[in-house]
Amino acid sequence: MALPSGRAFNATEVTMASSNRIEPNVRHTFDTSTLTGSYQLITSGGFDFDLAVYKMYNGGSTDVDISYNGTDDHDVCPAGGTFILDVQAN
After folding, report:
1. What is the residue extent of each domain of the chain?
2. pTM attached to this predicted model
């Protein structure tokens, strides 16, 4: 598939009518068996692009608590489950 520019299709070049761009972030992983009971960052350097949807799969055998402020539990990704945070849903 070619874009109007004539270049091959690339997910980072897809645009919508409102000029929002879809830019994929690199997948981050961590070993749930190394969790210490205190909050740990998913990525120490932040994400490459702003998030529209964040999806986490927990392949471990322990629930993973999620905090947005590093102090309080706000959500949970259950063992063997998926957590989806859609920050642009209406």
Report:
1. 27-90
2. 0.64
